[in-house]
Structure formats: structure tokens, C-alpha cells
Specification:
Layout: H1 8-13, E1 18-20, H2 24-29, E2 36-37, H3 43-56, H4 58-68, H5 71-87, E3 92-94, H6 100-111, H7 122-140, E4 142-148, H8 154-159, E5 164-165, H9 167-171, H10 188-204, E6 209-213, E7 218-219, E8 222-223, H11 226-232, E9 237-240, H12 244-285, H13 288-291, H14 293-313, H15 319-341, E10 346-350, H16 352-362
Parallel strand pairs: 1-2, 1-3, 4-6, 4-9, 5-6, 9-10
Antiparallel strand pairs: 7-8
């Protein structure tokens, strides 16, 4: 029999399969990549047991739990756990603190003839470990921030580097007002866990200097951890440049061609095009106040015409008009102001090739 584990390094470095026995409401608030939620109790059952515990104590709560999870209900849950064990013989199970719930699951599996180890300390201990991992990296490692106007290809530069921390990837969001994807964003805790695990793996590989994109406090609905964000306000800055024409084409590809294809994949031919159009228009509406009424109305009319053309013929050519207008009248002035305010931190300016060469020398 494998022993219960408390080596969190190895769990995350090896992408160890884990069975989360917490209630679904707990799992949704935050879990770890690759974990599967196979709860001991449903949300309603957990609520009833919790109320009983407060009113009558632990023994009464345990008795109620056994009454709620018995017979066919218990048999179905044991069957699901057994299947997980068979599919993941090198995995582990956990609950919130590595206490009663995971011990009960272990016991019931043992009664079914299966010995399966649990994570000592459970979710809480692993979560604390990952928070500490990121805080230690911020304190001990070197960071450089990659900035630039919208559409200069910052994500492309990061994708080629083993030392990159791609916050937009962890958040499943492109970072701007138009950054929402067809698939949803992770919970805040999931976002932080993804970031910390990537940091852990990269540091284990010997990396102690990281490159990350210049982001705001939030990436969509995900907040950049405060220690890292504060550091980003003082780290050296590399400024990426590209021609206006190249930037328009890159934005057209990312936010129109690729995003519309993503909506088709997720929602199908029947609903995908309309969902994509709604998302694009809503993204523009979200910055209505900052654009001002006249400019918003003009760009919206241009966007609507482009969407109509795309629906009719499949052509995306008309989208260039609103993209150009949005860059010239909104994003470029805003980024130019940011560039000026961060000027003293800029240590290099260049196009993609020059920046990639500079980063390689900087290593």
C-alpha cells in the first residue's frame, strides 16, 4: 500500500491525478489543474451535516452523514471512486483539511478491498503551499516586463520563451476589453494555482528569471496576485514595437478570424456566428463611456457592417475599418501615455526580432 503523501512539490511537478472529495460548491470556488470532483456529500447533504454539527456536535453530525449517504447512494459513490482509482492508480484523494471526509472515503474504499492514499493536510495545505511558492518567487527571482501597443505581438514573443509567465493563458483571457474568449475564465483561485504551479515547474527546471506581459491589475475577471502586480510596477520594461499595418492584421486575426472560429467550435454553426457578433459588440459597448457617444456610435456602425458582411460572405475585410479607428482614437493614445509614464523603466525598445535577440542576450 502506498502511504499518505505530504510532498506537495512532487504532486504538482508530476501533475499527479487527484480526487477532490469536497462538496461541489467548494470545488467550484477553487481546485487544482487535473483534479476531479467526486464528493463524499452533495452541497445539500453537506449543509445539513454542517447545521447538525453546529447545533448538536460532531458525533451527531457523523451519524447524520451516514444516514444521508447510505444504501444505493453510498454504492454509487463508491463505484465512482473505484473507477477513479482504476483509472489513476498513482493518484491521491483529498478533502478540505485532509481530515474526516477523506478518511471516510479511504475507509469505505478499504472496505471495498481498495487501499488508496490521501493528501495529508488536504486542499488547505496544498493551497497554502502554492501561495508560498509564488510569494517566494516574487521575493527571490528576477522579472522583466514586456510592454507595447495593442497588437504588437507580445503574446507571440512569450510563447517562444521557456521563462515566460503567460498571465493571459492562465486567465483564459486576452487581457483587453475585447479579450473574452468563447470559453469561460477560471475561478480566481484556479487562476492563481495555475500561475503558481507553472512557477514551481520552471524553478524546478532551474529558471530564476521570468518574462511576463505588462498587464493591468486584472486580466478579465482574474486579479493578478498583489505581490506580483506591485512588482510589475517597478520591474525593468522592454517595449515591443511593430508597424500599424502589422498590428491591424494581428488584431484582425486574433479578435475576428480566430475568435469567430472559436465560437463556431464551442457553439456550432447554428449559434456560433451570432454569439461571436454579440460578444464583439458587447466588448465595444463596455467601453462606451470612455469612447464617448459619437465615437462609440460611429465605431459600432462600422463593426455592425463588418459583421453583416462576414455573416453574408465570410469576408472579414470590413473589420479593418473599426480596428484602425479603435487603435488610432482610443488604444494608441492610452498606451502612449502609459509608455511615457513608465519611461524611466524602459531598458530596450525594438521590433519582435530585436526584442527576441535582446532577451536572448539578456539571459
Amino acid at each position: 500500500m502506498r502511504e499518505d503523501v505530504r510532498d506537495f512539490h512532487q504532486l504538482f511537478l508530476n501533475d499527479t491525478p487527484m480526487m477532490d472529495t469536497r462538496a461541489p460548491v467548494e470545488f467550484v470556488k477553487g481546485a487544482f489543474p487535473g483534479t476531479i470532483n467526486l464528493p463524499l456529500m452533495t452541497d445539500i447533504e453537506r449543509q445539513k451535516v454542517g447545521t447538525c454539527y453546529k447545533q448538536q456536535g460532531q458525533d451527531a453530525a457523523i451519524r447524520l452523514g451516514h444516514q444521508l449517504v447510505c444504501g444505493e447512494v453510498k454504492a454509487r459513490r463508491i463505484a465512482a471512486w473505484t473507477q477513479f482509482v482504476q483509472d489513476n492508480p498513482q493518484g491521491y484523494l483529498y478533502c478540505f483539511r485532509g481530515g474526516l471526509r477523506s478518511q471516510i472515503v479511504q475507509q469505505w474504499l478499504r472496505e471495498a478491498g481498495i487501499d488508496y492514499p490521501r493528501v495529508v493536510g488536504g486542499y488547505k495545505a496544498m493551497r497554502t503551499f502554492l501561495i508560498d511558492t509564488l510569494e517566494q518567487a516574487v521575493a527571490q527571482c528576477d522579472f522583466v516586463v514586456l510592454g507595447g501597443m495593442t497588437g504588437t505581438g507580445k503574446t507571440e514573443v512569450l510563447a517562444k520563451r521557456p521563462d515566460a509567465l503567460d498571465l493571459e493563458s492562465y486567465a483564459n483571457h486576452r487581457g483587453s476589453s475585447f479579450g473574452k474568449r468563447a470559453t469561460g475564465q477560471p475561478a480566481q483561485i484556479d487562476f492563481e494555482n495555475r500561475l503558481a504551479i507553472d512557477v514551481l515547474k520552471k524553478r524546478h527546471a532551474g529558471i530564476d528569471r521570468f518574462v511576463l506581459e505588462d498587464e493591468g491589475r486584472t486580466v478579465g475577471s482574474c486579479n493578478v496576485p498583489i505581490g506580483l502586480y506591485q512588482g510589475m510596477q517597478r520591474y525593468p520594461l522592454i517595449w515591443l514595437e511593430d508597424s500599424f499595418e502589422n498590428r491591424v492584421e494581428r488584431i484582425l486575426r486574433d479578435y475576428v478570424t480566430d475568435l469567430s472560429a472559436e465560437f463556431l467550435d464551442v457553439h456550432g454553426q447554428e449559434h456560433g456566428p451570432e454569439r461571436f457578433a454579440e460578444r464583439l459588440l458587447q466588448s465595444l459597448d463596455n467601453i462606451h463611456k470612455r469612447l464617448g457617444g459619437e465615437r462609440h456610435q460611429r465605431l459600432r456602425a462600422s463593426m455592425s457592417a463588418a459583421l453583416d458582411e462576414q455573416r453574408g460572405s465570410g469576408s472579414v475585410d470590413l473589420h479593418r475599418a473599426w480596428i484602425e479607428g479603435l487603435l488610432l482614437e482610443y488604444y494608441d493614445p492610452m498606451y502612449a501615455h502609459q509608455r511615457q509614464s513608465k519611461g524611466e523603466r524602459v531598458e530596450f525598445v525594438g521590433d519582435i526580432t530585436a526584442v527576441e535577440q535582446y532577451l536572448a542576450r539578456r539571459d
